[in-house]
Amino acid sequence: MNIDQANTDAVGRMISARPMLTGVATARDVIPGMRDGLLLHAGPPIGWDRMSGPLRGAVIGALLFEGLASTEAEAIERVEAGEVEFAPCHHHQSVGPMAGVTSASMAVYVVENTEGGNRAYSNLNEGYGKVLRYGAYAPEVLDKLRWMNEVMAPLVARALDGLGGIDVRALLAEALHMGDEGHNRNKAGSLLFTKHLAPAIGEASDDRSAAAGVVRFLGDNALGVLNPVMAACKAMADAAHGVEGSTLVTAMARNGTDFGVRVSGLGDDWFTAPAATPDGLYFSGFTAEDANPDIGDSTITETAGIGAFAMAAAPAIVTFVSGSPSDALNATLEMYDITVAEHQHFTIPQLDFRGTPVGIDVRKVVEFGVTPRVNTGIAHREAGIGQVGAGLVRPPIEIFREALTAFAEKHGV
Amino acid sequence: MNIDQANTDAVGRMISARPMLTGVATARDVIPGMRDGLLLHAGPPIGWDRMSGPLRGAVIGALLFEGLASTEAEAIERVEAGEVEFAPCHHHQSVGPMAGVTSASMAVYVVENTEGGNRAYSNLNEGYGKVLRYGAYAPEVLDKLRWMNEVMAPLVARALDGLGGIDVRALLAEALHMGDEGHNRNKAGSLLFTKHLAPAIGEASDDRSAAAGVVRFLGDNALGVLNPVMAACKAMADAAHGVEGSTLVTAMARNGTDFGVRVSGLGDDWFTAPAATPDGLYFSGFTAEDANPDIGDSTITETAGIGAFAMAAAPAIVTFVSGSPSDALNATLEMYDITVAEHQHFTIPQLDFRGTPVGIDVRKVVEFGVTPRVNTGIAHREAGIGQVGAGLVRPPIEIFREALTAFAEKHGV
Prior knowledge:
By secondary structure, the first copy, chain A, is an alpha+beta fold. Chain A is built from 14 helices and 16 strands. In chain A, a hairpin with a 5-residue loop joins strand 13 and strand 14 (354-360). Chain A starts with a helix and ends with a helix.
C-alpha cells in the first residue's frame, strides 16, 4: 500500500474540486435524509445530555422555529421525551457554523462540485447580534430566521438562477488576495458575493424595498459568504474522502463538547476528544470565564486549506482574533509542515503567491506534534446568550493519534 | 521661519481632513468657474500644440459629447480656431484620472472636507475598454458617457442623498486592510462603494432594470471608486495647501507631456518638467513602444499618502503593475524617507499597522535624491486608442529642485 500516493490522489481531488453555488432551497427538499423532527448539528455525534449551552440553545430555537414547541420548557420536554432526533450535519452532506443547527424547514445553500459531482449544503448566515448559531433563541432571533426564510431565501434563489450560479472557488481565490482567510475574515468574499447577487436580486423582485433590504443585509454582513464557503469546503473535502490507504483529514468539526476528525481512508468513523476553549479577544463585558469550548463545522475551511491555513493572506484579522501580523504569517508557515500539498487555486500574495498548505496528513500531525491551527468565533457557555469573542484554537492531538492507530490496525502495519 | 513646524501644520490638516462624498451634480452647476466651452484636463497647464495623443483624443471626445463639434475634424478646427478654453482640473478644485477631461455637462462627484470646509470634484469612472480618459472617443465611448450622465448619475445622486453621504476616509482605511493601495488597486474600495450604494439605488428607482444596470456597472468596475477617492485626496491635499513656510507637496499631476508639482508654501505656481514613460506590464498586443508618457491627476493619491505610498498593503497589485510583493513592501518603506508623518487613519497591516508615509517634503526629496513613487495606468500615445497597460513611474527630480530653489529665493535663504 502506498500511503503517499493515496494522499496525493485524495488531495488532488480536493484541489481540483470546483464548488459552484447553484441555489437556495428548503432543507427537507434537498438534504439527503432530512426530515421533520430531525435536527442537524455541528461536530461529531452527541446526545442532549452532553450538549453544551450554545448547542442546547440552538436546539431550543430550532424547535420553536419549526413550531414543534411553543416555549423553551416545552422544547426541552420534547427533547427529553425522545421526540427529537439529532445527527451531525456532516452525516447529511452538510455543514453549519457554530451550533450548526439546521431543521427541515430552514433554507439552505446548495453547492455542487461540478468536477466530482458531489453536493454539499449549509444554512444561511444570520449576521450579527443575537443569532441561533451562537445559541440565542429570543423572539428577535426567530423573527430574523423567518425573514431569511420567507424574504431573503426566495430572492437569493431567484438571483442565483438568473446568474447561473456563483463559482465559490474563484470567489475565494480572489478574496485571499483581498485580505480574507475565508473563515473568520470573509469581508472581501462577502462583498464579492453581494456584488454578484445585488443586481440579480434587484431584477428578481418587483418589491424594491424587500430587495433593498436583502441587499443591505448581505452587504452589511461581513460573514455573509461564510456559509456558502463552508458548503464549498465541504464539497471539496468530501471529494477527497474515501480514498483507500489515505491518511488525509477530510473533516474537522466541533459540537461544543467534543472535537472530531474523519480521515479519508477510514470511512465514516469519528475520532474525538474534549474540545479546547479558544484563546482570543473578548467583546466588552465578557471574559474567558464566559467562553464555551470550541464549537462549529467551520473548521471545514482549515480542512480544505483556507482559514487559519491561509492566515498569512489576512494580516488584519489579528485585530479580531488576537496576535500580530507576524503570528498570522507564522500560522500559515507552520501548516506547511503537516500538509501534503500547496493549493493550486488558493494563493497568498504575501508569500510570493505560494499556494496555501492543503491536505492535513494525520501522520505528519503525530510525527511533528503539530496540530492544525483554527480561527474561530467564541460562544457564551450558556444557552440563549450568543457570541462573546473570537480567537484561536487547536484540536487535541489525541484524536490524530487515535486515527493513526486505527489506520495502522486496519492495515496491519 | 520654522519650516518643520509649517510642515507639521500642513500635514496635520491633510491627515485630519474628513472627505465625505456628498453628491453627484452637473459640472457647470457646482465646479467653481466651470462654463460651457471650457475643458478641464489633468496635470499642469498645457496648450493644444503640446498636448499628447490621449489628451487630444479626450478633448475631441468631450467636444463631441458636448455637441460643440459633430466630427473629429470639426472638433480640431474649433480648438485651432481658439474657440475652446483649457484649464487644469486642479485650477478648479477638481481632479480626473488619465486625461482627466471634464466638460460643463458632465456629471461629477462632490466631496466635502467636513473638517476644513473645502470641496473637491471629480468626473465619474467609465470602467474598462474604450474610455475617454485614455483618449478614446468612438461612438461607444460617447454612448457610455451619456448613459452615465442620464441614467447612472441621477440614481447615484439620489442614493447618496438617501445615505447622507459616504465617508471616503473610512472607506479607504478599510480598503487598505483589504489589499488595496487606493490608486491602481481599488477592488475592495469599489466593492465597499457598491455595497453602500446598491440598496439605496434599488430604493431610489422604480425602474428595476435601470437600477440593476447601474449596480452591476458599479460592482463590476474594480476602479469605480477611484474618482471619488481622487476627489477625497484632492480635498485632503488642498486642506494642506497655502501654509506659509511649508515645503510640503500638495499636488502632483501629469498632462501626458509634463509632470508638475505644487508646494504648500509656494502658492499656485507649478514646477514642471517632461513626464517620464512608466515601466510596467502591457496588455496583449502592446509594448513599451505604444506607451504615452505619464498622464493623469491620479497622483493626488500618492500626494495624500496612499497609492504607491501604501503599496505594502497591496501585494497582489504586482500582477498588474509588475514587480514582486517585496518590491511593493519596499516601495512603501522608501517613501518614509521623504515624508514628514505617518498617517493616523490609513494603516498597513503588513507593517504592524504602521501609518502610511504622508506629506512629501521637497527638501527630503532633494536631499536624499529619492523621488515619490507612483502607480499608474499606461495610455496609448495616439489619440483614440485607449489603455495599453499599467506600471510604475516617478516624477523628474528637477521639479523638486526647482521648487526648493523657488522656496529659498522667496524666503531669502
